[in-house]
Amino acid sequence: MAGPTITLRCARLLLVGVLALAAPKAVPAVEIGGPFELIDQNGVTRTDRDFAGSYLLVYFGYTYCPDLCPTTLIEMAQALEELAVLDPAKSARVVPMFVTVDPQRDTPDILKGYAENIHPRLVALTGSKRALDKVGRKYGVFYARAPGRGPDDYLVDHTSFVYLMGPDGKYLEHFEKDASVADLVAALRRQVAVPNGNGS
To answer: pLDDT-derived band of residue 14, with 50, 70 and 90 as boundaries?
Structure first.
């Protein structure tokens, strides 16, 4: 009886070994976000370190965008206002951030007026094309200038995600263009933590 038992045991071990070899390798997690150094709407240099400890709602777009950008940013602002009613402590920990993909036209002065019409706490960032390209790559953002009628009359094709980043600068989740205000509020209530157990 010992022979068949040993043979069966060996067969099982062989099967486990084959399955282990055949199993797909774990795919490393995609890194989203990272250090940056850009200029805000007040002409002040801002880096990722300035926002350590805060949750960021980050959107890449441009002020001349005819529809998608203002719609998305207004929805972000509405989500923060709703969160402020439901849970002020959590809302206070979230910084809405707009990063331009059109540095040629989106100067700090242009961004300042634009941000004031969206939300009083919106941080709007610009910089050199090289600096913005670097940040865009870190977030996996695609953007490209589309042909226009003149040097200052053009559109910019770009991906349209809202990224939620944690207080440690790590990616938490993202929202596509069909996400609703309710979706944003629900995610913020779920993801944002308040020190000392405050907040719901």
So the answer is: very low
pTM beyond 0.85: the answer is no
Phi and psi at 159, nearest 5°, equal -70, 155
Structure tokens at 15: 């099967």
pLDDT digits (tens, 9 = 90+) for 112-128: 999 999 999 999 999 99
What is the CA angle 35-98-178, rounded to 5? 110
**CA separation for the pair 75, 90 (Å, rounded):** 17
Q: Where are the beta strands (DSSP E) in 24-93?
A: 37-40, 45-47, 55-61
> Which of 121, 79, 67, 81 lies closest to 98, judged by CA?
121
Query: Which residues are within 8 A (CB) of 140 and not within 5 positions of it... i.e. 6 or more apart?
Result: 30, 32, 159
Position 151, amino acid: P
Contact between 122 and 73 (Cβ < 8 Å): yes
pLDDT in tens, 48-58: 999 999 999 99
Topology annotation, domain 37-197: Glutaredoxin (3.40.30)
> What does the block give as tokens for 162?
């809202």
Tell me how far apart the alpha carbons of residues 61 and 73 are, in angstroms, rounded to a whole number: 9
59-60-62 Cα angle (round to 5):
120
Rounded CA separation 35/135 (Å): 8
